[in-house]
Structures are given as structure tokens and as C-alpha cells.
Amino acid sequence: MSDETAREAGSTESVSLEERIARLEEILTRLESDEVALEQALELFEEGIGHVRAAERVLSETQLRVEELLAGGKKKELDVDEP
């Protein structure tokens, strides 16, 4: 993965879920075009996987928080499978 791709995939939490989804849409559009070289397609795919995994973490954490709020603030342990 190139440095630029790694930065865009970002393991940092500063990238919002909406930004990740928008980037995933861009990646999908690029991958669907016939003008992407194999190596670039692989880099885009790797970046996309990073965004999907980060988005899954955000959604899992959000789901847990909603469940906590509905349960009257009683906290549950987060059971998220780490890759």
C-alpha cells in the first residue's frame, strides 16, 4: 500500500464515518472503471478494506452505546472481534 493510500485509509479516528463512506464510493467508482491498472486496483482495494473495517468498529461502538442508553445507562463490555 502506498503512503498516500495508507494515510487515506487512516487508522486514526479523525476520519468520520461519513468521510469513510464517501471514500468507499470513490474507490468503488474507480474500481468499476476499465482504466485502473492492476497494481492501482489492488491498492484501492486494500484502502477500501481498511475503511470498511474502521467503519465496522465505529458502528459496533455506536450500537453498544445505543444499547447502553436504552438499558438505562448500564454499561456492557464491548465484544468486538479484532482482525
Characterization of the model:
- This protein has one domain (3-70).
- The chain is mainly alpha-helical and 83 residues long.
- Mean pLDDT is 83; it is low at 1-10.
- The protein is elongated.
- The protein starts with a helix and ends in a 13-residue tail after the last helix.
- The chain has three helices and no strands.
Number of helices: 3
Contiguous runs where pLDDT drops below 50 for at least 5 residues: 1-10
What's the β-strand tally? 0
- Sheet with the most strands, sense and barrel status: none
Q: Which bin fits the share of residues in helices? A: 55-70%
Give the DSSP E fraction (strand runs of 2 or more residues): under 5%
Look at the structure and give the mean pLDDT: 83
Rg (CA only): 16 Å
When the domains are counted, the total is 1
- Coarse structural class: mainly alpha
Distance separating the two termini: 18 Å
Give helix and strand order, one letter per element, not per position: HHH
What does the overall shape look like? Answer: elongated
Task: Draw up the topology in text.
Elements: H1 3-9, H2 17-32, H3 38-70
Helix pairs in contact: 1-3, 2-3
Write a brief structural summary.
Residues 1-10 have low confidence and may be disordered. The longest helix has 33 residues, at 38-70.
Descriptors:
single chain, 83 residues, mainly alpha, disordered N terminus
